[in-house]
Amino acid sequence: MSGFTITITDAGRAALINAQNNGTTAFILSEVGVSTQAVTGPLKSLTALPNETKRLATMAGDVVANDTLHVTIRDESASAYALRAFGLYTSTGVLFAVYSQAEPIIEKSSAAMLLLAVDAKLLTLDTEQVEFGPVGFTLPPASETVAGITEVATDAEADAGTDNWRYITPRLLKRALSALSGFAALGHKHDAADIETGTFNASRIPSLAMSKITGLADALAGKAAAIHGHTVSQIEGLSAALAGKANTQHGHHADDISQGIFSVGRIPSLAMEKITGLASALAGKAPIDSADLTGAVRLPAWTTVKRRAGNQGGLLMLEGPGEGTGVNGGILFDFIGNTLFIQEQLSPWRGLNIDITGLAPGVATQLWTTQNFNPATKADANGWTNPNADADVLGYKSFLTQGQTPIASGQIDGRAGLEIRAIGTGAAYLCFHRPLEHAAFLGLDTDNQLKFGGWSQGAVAHLIYHSGNLRFATYAELLNASVGDRMLSPALLWAFPRAIGVSGYQQIPGTDLIIQWGVSNASYSEGPVHTTLPVAFGGGCLVAMAIPRNVAQNTGYDYYMQVVGRYQDRIVFLANRANTNSYNLTGYEWMAIGRATGTPDPAYGGGGGGGGEWPPNDGEMPVIP
Questions:
Q1: How far apart are CA 133 and CA 14, in angstroms?
Q2: Which residues sit opposite 69 in a β-bridge?
Q3: Nearest-angstrom CA–CA distance, 90 and 99
Q4: Hey, CA dihedral for 124, 128, 133, 136, is it positive or negative?
């Protein structure tokens, strides 16, 4: 640390005066006293360091300038303290100089070594007569006249060239010199003819008259303006190409249409008399629903519709054009009672029967009409018997099982109401389909596990969890981070060591970490404060902290807490006053985090008192490994 301005005491200044009172005398600084308290009041009148914690002979130093002493202080003991003041003593025991501040200069723990290097400025004293005892070590900063600790400059610091304390290595020197090789002097110039590559900045190019560009005037001679026009006669062949062409907007008479089919919308509505022969063709024809079918219409090609003759109750017959010749057969439509039937014609002399599926010669088959048959109320038998046909079934369908046995009975004799059977060793599954939205399969996969997936789900089969393949975990399985197919019950989720209260602890589930906390309302004077843990850290404390309480909101109360030591069974804090007017500490709140198992620091005082055993509750709950 540098820049300390220390105060020379009156006693120290007197030690410098020689016996003749006409100059100074040399003396040796051999010890340093340290204190945890900030010194108040005038420092010049001190003859001993107030509240001195200890005096160290392990001090070294050197005079690094006419007004600066470099002092190095070392403490390798197991003491723990916060250094706020120190004093330099001569070999004769005189307190020569003192330095003090309210905030800690440095803090020492019991497990650490204190090593403090200080550049102390003596603003009103020449240091020529000051010497240090031969301790064997010193850490002064190096300068042009003092050998000491220094630092190698980085590349960036070497490039900046502003640091007067760090030094340049041969590598950095070579790097700097190499960077200059091949470079021309700063103020050199080039002739225009030396420029071989790159592009000139536009501002560097002078404006040129057209006459300066060779051939430009000749190249532009006779050229048309950027915006110009042409007459039709100036475009070769254009007049001949347009000859005989119609205008874009032109029309045609209906007589001009020689081919193609008119759009329906282009044909006007016509009266019957406008269609030649239509009235004559319809003359004498009966309506379709007329009861009198005399003179039935003969259809083109092979089919004849005529009234059946010679059979009581007969109505219509459809037969081929070779009627009565024994060449073609026919179909009879008969009324039997009030029901319409259809059958093949009975003609012993007929040489050829018509093959109509479902009609047997001489057998009357009843016809269904919309009056006595509604397809919407019937199941699609073809869809059920042929999977490739339309198998949609509308409405609610119920499938009854053949028995009343439970699923667990293990019946395998086909008692289920609906069976989805696989082909061979394949999977057996149902499909759930929302057209144009989503579809997926649900069923028994080839590994005999119920799964859901496929189709819109992609090439996946998600396992359906149930009590047969997913069960609650035990406490041992909870601790095993590799077990991933078990459920946690609410009871198991809270089955970890804990004690919830004003002072308590809790172990984080699945980990080795324990969090402990507490509140103390007691009154303490400045100094060490021992905090007994609700339960001991089996693996030691990792971190601890404390905050003073001020319930009375007293503005003159100014304390802060420091950690002195962390142990298995307790935390030791140091209560410090920030000023000498503070009252006693009226309590504090604390928190600590540690491990349940492991290799801890030794227990305070060989085990100490308090803290309890780990795990708690007589070992009923195992410690997480």
A1: 20
A2: 63, 120
A3: 15
A4: positive
Quote the Cα angle for 237-238-242, to 5°: 120
- Please report the pLDDT score of residue 614 as a whole number: 37
Residue in the block written with tokens 């200080």: 118
- φ/ψ (deg, to 5) at 212: -80, -15
Three-state DSSP at 120 gives strand
Amino acid at 202: A
Show the tokens assigned to 595.
Answer: 């491990």
How far apart are alpha carbons 526 and 547 in whole angstroms?
14
Given this model, what pLDDT does residue 621 score? 33
Spatial separation of the C-alpha atoms in residues 613 and 603, rounded to whole Å: 12
157 Cα distance to chain centroid: 41
Cβ–Cβ contacts within 10 Å for residue 592, how many?
Answer: 24
Contact 439, 450 (CB under 8 A): no
pLDDT tens, position by position, 378-407: 655 555 555 555 556 667 778 787 777 777
Spatial distance between the Cα atoms of 554 and 556, rounded to a whole number of angstroms:
5
Contacts of 276 (CB under 8 A, 6+ apart): none
471-472 and 486-487 strand pairing: parallel
pLDDT under 50: residue ranges of the chain: 1-2, 126-127, 129, 132-137, 286-299, 301-315, 322-328, 346-357, 603-625
Asked if residues 138 and 85 have their Cβ atoms less than 8 Å apart, the reply is: no
Rounded Cα distance, 225 and 382, in Å? 83
Q: Are 595 and 513 in contact (CB under 8 A)?
A: yes
Q: pTM of the full predicted structure?
A: 0.29
pLDDT in tens, 243-263: 778 777 777 776 777 777 766
Q: Which residues contact 443 (CB under 8 A, 6 or more apart)?
A: 420, 427, 428, 429, 430, 450, 451
What are the structure tokens assigned to 5, written together?
A: 């301005």
- Residue 356, CA distances (Å) to 329, 343, 360, 363 in order: 11, 10, 8, 13
| φ/ψ bin of 297: left (φ > 0), alpha (ψ from -120 to 50), beta (otherwise) | beta
Residue count (the chain): 625
Rounded Cα distance between 283 and 275, Å, is 14
Are 571 and 541 in contact by the 8 Å Cβ rule? The answer is yes
Q: pLDDT value at position 1?
A: 46
Helices (H), 285-388: 381-385
Measured CA distances, 602 to 300, 350, 539, 541, 565 (Å): 117, 121, 10, 11, 11
Task: Give me the torsion for CA of 455, 457, 460, 464, rounded to 10°.
Answer: -110
Q: How far apart are CA 483 and CA 481, in angstroms?
A: 6
